[in-house]
Design a protein that fits this description.
Order of helices and strands: EEEHEEHHEEHE
CATH topology of the largest domain: Ribosomal Protein S8, Chain: A, domain 1
Oligomer: single chain
Number of helices: 4
Strand content: 25-35%
CATH class of the largest domain: Alpha Beta
Number of domains: 2
Distance between the termini: 36 Å
CATH architecture of the largest domain: 2-Layer Sandwich
Structural class: alpha+beta
CATH superfamily of the largest domain: Scaffold protein Nfu/NifU, N-terminal domain
Helix content: 25-40%
Length: about 190
């Protein structure tokens, strides 16, 4: 049985990061944006059943839960801890969904340049962006790359945080333009 050993606030006031005493996932992430998305996942399903939960994100040794603005944390926190401790168990790497390795529509370019560009982008994101987002209880998923337009989806605490769609997205775009290709544009998906 896993235990919640700490709760951290995130930059998003509607999301909390619940730190566990052992890893849930060795690699990859799990993101559930609606109750029906989490129906087949024991942990996510047990959290959505509580009501007022907007999304569930987990990776490594933490679970980020985002709530609806109409709900208070005082009532939800103890129930979330109980649900996590009753339903969290390590997930084998073979069944994980790793956003950085998922194919993109842009990878079908015959010359391979889109695929090469995407590999570079994913490496920069993995090395420079993902650790910072994970520290704040979130992440991002690359959805598509087409004609130097990178479509991303924020996950966890970042998914419903107002700063992710403005400041953070601009910072990601600036980093990719500087480190990969000055023509890259980043848009939400």
């Amino acid at each position: 049985m896993m235990k919640v050993i700490n709760i951290e606030e995130t930059p998003n006031p509607e999301a909390l990061k619940f730190i566990l005493d052992a890893p849930l996932l060795e690699t990859g992430v799990r993101q559930f944006d609606r109750p029906e998305d989490g129906a087949s996942d024991l942990l996510a399903g047990s959290l959505f059943v509580l009501g007022g939960i907007e999304s569930v994100f987990y990776m490594g040794s933490f679970v980020t839960v985002s709530k609806l603005p109409t709900r208070g944390w005082n009532d939800l926190k103890p129930r979330i801890i109980k649900a996590i401790e009753a339903n969290a168990s390590p997930v084998k790497a073979a069944v994980l969904s790793d956003a950085s390795s998922q194919p993109s529509n842009g990878q079908s370019d015959a010359s391979g340049t889109q695929a090469e560009l995407l590999v570079k982008i994913n490496q920069v994101l993995e090395d420079n962006v993902m650790p910072a987002l994970a520290a704040d209880g979130g992440g991002l998923e690359v959805l598509d790359l087409h004609d130097h337009v990178l479509t991303i989806h924020y996950q966890g605490a970042c998914g419903s945080c107002p700063s992710s769609t403005a400041g953070t997205m601009a910072a990601v775009q600036n980093l990719l333009q500087r480190m990969v290709d000055p023509r890259i544009q980043v848009v939400p998906g």
